[in-house]
């Protein structure tokens, strides 16, 4: 199946090239720090190379030309699978291009949508007074779920929100938009983010350095003022990305963007970039350093692979696309529960990359059920140097306990004591916090997030 998919994608690219829709090497966006961006096929583990133009035939250099070529090619494609390959190739190139979706060129805005929900679809936003009826999306092939719209806009745009509308009543954010955020009306897409407020940037199906793991979405929080101020920013990497920014996530999510906004504006923390890496169905495997017995099933132990993905894939990409302060003193990693365990393991394996690591309610006893080394065992045998560590929990004494609701209180104390025994000093490079009775959920971790941020990245 994968070979067949590669064949379709290759054929789609050949057709797009023939129509003048090839891709040259992706460029670093304004404000990028590197000399060249990673190849556009980072978005898909099974995509062919997109950075080499054919020997003959014209090569389009704009995303708007690519969209027009796709629209021209779709009606003549032989069936849904061939059309899917054309759309996949187009989306991959544009999503990892300089600007991403929506396309903005030549005083025009290009919106593309894959949607099987049916009904009439329109686009509305600040650029047309939120008129839900004025700009219908066009379906190049009746019955095939791809839609688009190219509409004039007046440049330069201020910060500009927009949404897609189904049947004049159901409003939803463009799922392909690179720049987006949330407000009281839910998620919105951005045609222009501006610089007065923060925003999020989406990198779908990220696969650079992923190896045998699954691609996943990477989301970057970009603070207000980032465009105008060329100062390189510290970077915090966080796990379980689906729960970090979306207020509709489990237990209301972490509200990381809101917390960062408030504390940057208040001067409590520096302006920083925050990178959320989504988890997958293999979370228990990826977030653990060894195997353990989980209710009678042996699982875990792919933490090294996951951290290789972060260190050799995600971080170089972020450093190339954004202005980052790249050293360990300005690079942190943070997570909760198993995410807290893998964060400490990241600092253990890669202290030259992560100078700060935080665990909230960390599962530090992982491995003990099968007699494998726990995180405490690793630190006691070979402590990393030069790393500042934050750890906290809710729960309550006594210890030991078998209470599952105790928020890993006892193992967090054990980890803190192990670190002290290896030379970490409270208030200097060890920061331990305890919130009596706090539960094992996103709301509790969100409430404790400012403590870690203010210890590591205090305001100017």
**Computed structural class:** alpha/beta
Which of globular, elongated, flat, extended, rod-shaped describes the shape?
elongated
Percentage of β-strand residues: 15-25%
- Biggest β-sheet, characterized? 13 strands, mixed
**How many strand units?**
18
The N- and C-terminal alpha carbons lie at a distance of 55 Å
**pLDDT averaged over residues:** 89
Layout of strands and helices, then pairs:
Blueprint: H1 2-18, H2 63-73, H3 80-95, E1 103-105, E2 108-114, E3 121-125, E4 146-152, E5 160-166, E6 170-172, E7 179-183, E8 186-192, E9 199-206, E10 216-222, E11 235-238, H4 256-265, E12 273-277, H5 283-286, E13 291-294, E14 297-300, H6 303-321, E15 331-336, H7 338-349, E16 356-360, H8 375-381, E17 388-393, H9 409-421, E18 430-434, H10 442-456
Parallel strand pairs: 11-12, 11-15, 15-16, 16-17, 17-18
Antiparallel strand pairs: 1-2, 2-4, 3-5, 5-6, 5-8, 7-8, 7-9, 9-10, 10-12, 13-14
Helix pairs in contact: 1-3, 2-3, 8-9
Give an overview in words.
The chain is α/β, with parallel strands linked by helices. It is built from ten helices and 18 strands. It has helices spanning 2-18, 63-73, 80-95, 256-265, 283-286, 303-321, 338-349, 375-381, 409-421, 442-456; strands at residues 103-105, 108-114, 121-125, 146-152, 160-166, 170-172, 179-183, 186-192, 199-206, 216-222, 235-238, 273-277, 291-294, 297-300, 331-336, 356-360, 388-393, 430-434. The strands form three sheets. Strands 3, 5, 6, 7, 8, 9, 10, 11, 12, 15, 16, 17 and 18 form a 13-stranded mixed β-sheet that branches. Strands 1-2-4 form a three-stranded antiparallel β-sheet, covered by helices on one side. A hairpin with a 2-residue loop joins strand 7 and strand 8. Helix 1 packs across helix 3 (80-95), helix 2 runs antiparallel to helix 3 and helix 8 (375-381) packs parallel to helix 9 (409-421). It is elongated. Residues 1-10 and 17-57 have low confidence and may be disordered.
């Amino acid at each position: 199946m994968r070979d067949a998919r590669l064949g379709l994608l290759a054929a789609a690219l050949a057709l797009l090239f023939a129509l003048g829709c090839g891709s040259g090497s992706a460029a670093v966006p304004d404000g990028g720090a590197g000399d060249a961006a990673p190849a556009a096929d980072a978005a898909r583990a099974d995509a062919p190379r997109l950075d080499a133009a054919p020997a003959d035939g014209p090569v389009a250099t704009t995303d708007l030309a690519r969209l027009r070529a796709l629209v021209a090619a779709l009606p003549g494609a032989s069936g849904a699978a061939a059309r899917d390959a054309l759309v996949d190739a187009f989306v991959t190139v544009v999503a990892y291009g300089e600007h991403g979706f929506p396309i903005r060129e030549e005083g025009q805005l290009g919106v593309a949508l894959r949607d099987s929900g049916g009904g009439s679809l329109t686009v509305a936003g600040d650029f047309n007074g939120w008129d839900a009826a004025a700009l219908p999306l066009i379906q190049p092939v009746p019955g095939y779920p791809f839609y688009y719209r190219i509409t004039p806009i007046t440049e330069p745009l201020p910060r500009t929100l927009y949404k897609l509308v189904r049947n004049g009543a159901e409003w939803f954010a463009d799922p392909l938009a690179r720049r987006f955020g949330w407000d009281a009306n839910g998620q919105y897409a951005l045609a222009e983010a501006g610089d007065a407020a923060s925003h999020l940037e989406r990198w779908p199906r990220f696969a650079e350095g992923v190896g045998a793991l699954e691609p996943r979405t990477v989301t970057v929080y970009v603070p207000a003022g980032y465009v105008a101020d060329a100062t390189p920013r510290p970077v915090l990497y966080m796990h379980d990305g689906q729960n970090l920014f979306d207020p509709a996530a489990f237990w209301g999510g972490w509200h990381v963007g809101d917390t960062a906004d408030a504390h940057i504006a208040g001067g409590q923390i520096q302006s920083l970039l925050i990178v959320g890496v989504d988890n997958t169905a293999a979370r228990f495997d990826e977030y653990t350093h060894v195997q353990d017995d989980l209710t009678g099933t042996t699982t875990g132990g792919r933490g090294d692979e996951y951290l290789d993905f972060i260190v050799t894939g995600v971080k170089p990409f972020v450093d190339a696309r954004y202005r980052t302060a790249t050293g360990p003193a300005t690079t942190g990693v943070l997570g909760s529960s198993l995410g807290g365990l893998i964060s400490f393991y990241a600092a253990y394996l890669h202290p030259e990359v992560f100078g700060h690591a935080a665990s909230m309610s960390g599962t530090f006893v992982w491995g003990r059920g099968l007699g494998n080394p726990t995180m405490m065992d690793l630190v006691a045998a070979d402590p990393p140097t030069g790393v500042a560590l934050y750890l906290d929990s809710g729960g309550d004494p006594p210890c030991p306990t078998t209470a599952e609701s105790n928020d890993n209180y006892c193992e967090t104390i054990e980890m803190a004591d192990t670190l002290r025994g290896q030379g970490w000093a409270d208030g200097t490079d060890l920061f331990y916090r305890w919130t009596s009775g706090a539960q094992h959920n996103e709301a509790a971790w969100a409430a404790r997030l400012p403590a870690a941020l203010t210890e590591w990245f205090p305001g100017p």
